[in-house]
Amino acid sequence: MKKGKLERENQSEGEDPTSKVQQNPFAMIGRMLTKLAMYIVLPIVGMLKGMVNMVSSVYKKVLTVFLRSTVAVMLVRMVIDKFGIAAIKNAWYDANQITDHVLDGYTKPLRTKGWDLALLEYTVAMLTDSASEPPLSKRLGQISCPVLIITGDSDRLVPSWNAERLSRAIPGSSLEVIKNCGHLPHEEKVEEFISVVQKFLQSVFGAQQVVQTAS
């Protein structure tokens, strides 16, 4: 009797502790339901991804057709005529610095024949050409050359936090934020802009080489 009892105890000690779980009918049902759910969910996820790609493709085609239409040209002209000057003034931290000469420099190209069509074709090209390449955000990390990013702290068109994100995405890049400046630091803060660029070039190529190149 004792011998049989010892054998049963030894057998129970040698059993895999997970065997009881495996024999548990509720655990078995749970595993079966999990597998069944995966078999159902995975095809649905794949189908949804395909639908998103299809919708994106159709959307781009429809948008391309619209951008090349007469209506799109009329809308572009109307928007530029109504909001163009306001957009230029909004690009500066101090709009009082904007002279008629500055405004003419931005509006003169808009009097060129076919500028509106060129703008729309440029937009179409960005939509169609980008489809064959990885997203720009995934390619920024591949940049290996020295990069300087300059922005104004009061940029209302492209806020400075965008420049900060860009700087983090490009390895080893330098970020300079010019105070009391809007979207156009190279025009609004000319001396500070040149100073920042000069310091960057000196840090990359050396002061002597920069001076020789400038002379």
Outline the structure in words.
This protein is mainly alpha-helical and 215 residues long. 68% of the residues lie in helices and 5% in strands. The chain has a two-stranded parallel ribbon. The protein is extended and about 80 Å long. The termini are far apart. The mean pLDDT is 78. Residues 1-21 are annotated as: Disordered. Residues 130-189 form the AB hydrolase-1 domain.
Summarize this entry quickly.
By secondary structure, the chain is mostly helical. It has helices spanning 2-14, 19-23, 25-67, 70-90, 100-107, 115-129, 136-139, 160-169, 185-188, 190-205, 207-214, and strands at 148-152, 174-178. Among the domains are: 60-132, no CATH class; 142-214, Alpha/Beta hydrolase fold, catalytic domain (Rossmann fold), CATH 3.40.50.1820.
Give me some keywords for this one.
extended; 68% helix; 5% strand; 215 residues; two-stranded parallel ribbon; Rossmann fold; 2 strands; mainly alpha
Could you give the topology of this structure?
Layout: H1 2-14, H2 19-23, H3 25-67, H4 70-90, H5 100-107, H6 115-129, H7 136-139, E1 148-152, H8 160-169, E2 174-178, H9 185-188, H10 190-205, H11 207-214
Parallel strand pairs: 1-2
